[in-house]
Design goal:
Number of strands: 0
Order of helices and strands: HHHHHHHHHHHHHH
Shape: globular
Strand content: under 5%
Distance between the termini: 22 Å
Radius of gyration: 19 Å
Number of helices: 14
Helix content: over 70%
Number of domains: 1
Structural class: mainly alpha
Length: 264
């Protein structure tokens, strides 16, 4: 396992090439092309703003205005996370012609999916940053230094789960449908469309068992809330969980590697 893990460093150029191919293919044939990477999050943010200022005003704490920006701080990383897991779960099946080539490293496919969605997350983060600069007091510069650490922790967790789910889906096609429904439950069990403070006290311990709860709150603290970053200890815990998820995901992937070409 660790020998194959070390070999991943040799495939950096291949991963970059596949990520670039994925980004080009996503908008091939559209008029705006790559510009949709900025337009999509902008339109989504404008829709949320309309809903919570015109349709549902006063349904959230007043200190969370503009509420659409608060939600977007959680929805952006969640979109990266959920899209990566769904697409990665089918990446080996879709890339079966590559996996059947003797020298092709199969783990590159789910990793590429996660990194391509990370690029889209970066585009959305740019849009969010512009609106936060306009409608919220500027965040403390020192607190923003935590943002790369939060992204790195989420990247580690997401790649680990992507490796695990992609290898299992290659053997059991039902996993993709199962994860799609579980992600819906996971979304509502994460304080994204509501602040964790409004959750009932008896529910909060269960929410805190969810690693993405701490990631979502970390993004909200760094990007939206004023004051210091209180979430650093929880972030370290999620980093440890992400490392375990990565090692477990790669271990399962490595054990199933020889069976993958026959299954896809």
């Amino acid at each position: 396992m660790f020998a194959n893990l070390r070999h991943l460093l040799r495939y950096q150029a291949l991963i970059r090439s596949l990520v670039a191919r994925d980004l080009r293919a996503r908008y091939r044939g559209s008029v705006l092309g790559f510009f949709w990477s900025f337009v999509n999050p902008l339109l989504l943010l404008l829709i949320y703003s309309f809903v919570f200022t015109v349709v549902l005003p006063g349904t959230h704490p007043p200190d969370l205005e503009p509420f659409a920006l608060f939600m977007f701080c959680g929805i952006l990383p969640w979109s990266w996370f959920s899209a990566s897991l769904l697409e990665a779960s089918n990446s080996l099946v879709a890339g079966g012609n590559l996996i059947r080539k003797v020298l092709f490293p199969a783990e590159v496919l789910p990793i590429t999916t996660v990194l391509a969605n990370l690029a889209h997350f970066g585009f959305g983060l740019t849009i969010l940053g512009v609106f936060l600069a306009i409608f919220r007091p500027p965040a403390e510069p020192l607190k923003l230094l935590w943002l790369p650490a939060i992204i790195l922790v989420q990247l580690l967790l997401t790649i680990g789960l992507a490796l695990l789910l992609s290898s299992l889906t290659a053997l059991f096609r039902d996993v993709r449908d199962l994860i799609q429904n579980l992600l819906t439950l996971w979304f509502f069990a994460t304080p994204i469309i509501y602040p964790i403070s409004v959750a009932p006290a008896r529910i909060q311990p269960f929410l805190n068992l969810n690693p993405f709860t701490h990631l979502a709150v970390a993004y909200q603290e760094v990007l939206f809330h004023a004051g210091p970053f209180y979430q650093w200890d929880r972030l370290l815990l999620v980093a440890a969980e992400g490392l375990v998820a990565f090692l477990l995901g790669y271990f399962v992937f490595d054990r199933l590697r020889d069976a993958l070409p026959e299954e896809v």
